Amino acid sequence: MEDLTTDTPNPTRAKLSKKWQHRFAIFDQFATREGSFFSDGSSEAFKALPRKERSQASLMVLPIFFGPFYYFAKTMWQKGVVLIGLMFLFAVVLELVEYAFDITVPNSVAGLPLGFLCGTLAGYDYYKHVQYGEKMWPIMPGFLSHPVGVVAFPLVAFFIFMGTVSFTDPWLSEADLEEMNASAVHSVSGLWVDEDSNLVAVSLDQGGGTLHTPVDLFMVSISDIVWGEDAVSVVLEAQDSDAAWVLEQDYEVEGMFMELHDSASGKTFQLKFVEELGASK
Q1: Boundary of a domain, candidates 144, 168, 192
Q2: Which of 1, 30, 140, 163 is 20 to 30 Å from 44 at the Cα level?
């Protein structure tokens, strides 16, 4: 097997811990100066390594959790900065997927690909950094071999991400939000009937109003209006007691329906619209 180390002692390598010395000895057996992790990792030299050594060379735990910051800690700042740019570009893809398919990807899941990419590459990259002084992956575009290109890349990626977010989730002015909230208040106001044919009257304006349930008539104030992915919720609080309710309308449900969540009893009532009422003064 070809010996890829040089005869000149590497002072940085000599100062490494025994654990890193062992890991570097593994990389010596298959890593090449011009190769990438993927080309070297598919070589016969890599495949000939024992399974334990292949695992030690191809996955590290700390970079999975710390990502680009692990690269910064190991003085590989150029690659760390580019990884941040790739993170923004990946976020753009996720944002478009969520928008196109009307789904929400949990943040914990969204961060896994970059984490495992860092966990896979970090050890090999550190070896190339110490052994050969490599600053950027050879498969990356040429402009990333210059500091200006490295710094510009995440900035451009960030602006692309912000532009995508502004398209898929437009920023609302205060006036727009007030108009939306007024529409939500109007949509939950009216005379409703529950599944047991009991009438529920909701008469609201932006300042509050009345909620007339089969149990009692309550003077209420609006404590919050919450806009979700699929529904809007108007949160009401009684003015003279601890009672509270949530009126929730689903965007996807055809017809005029609403759920009334009673916080005191923990019950939820399905309501169907009957007719409009005048807003309270």
Answers
A1: 168
A2: 140
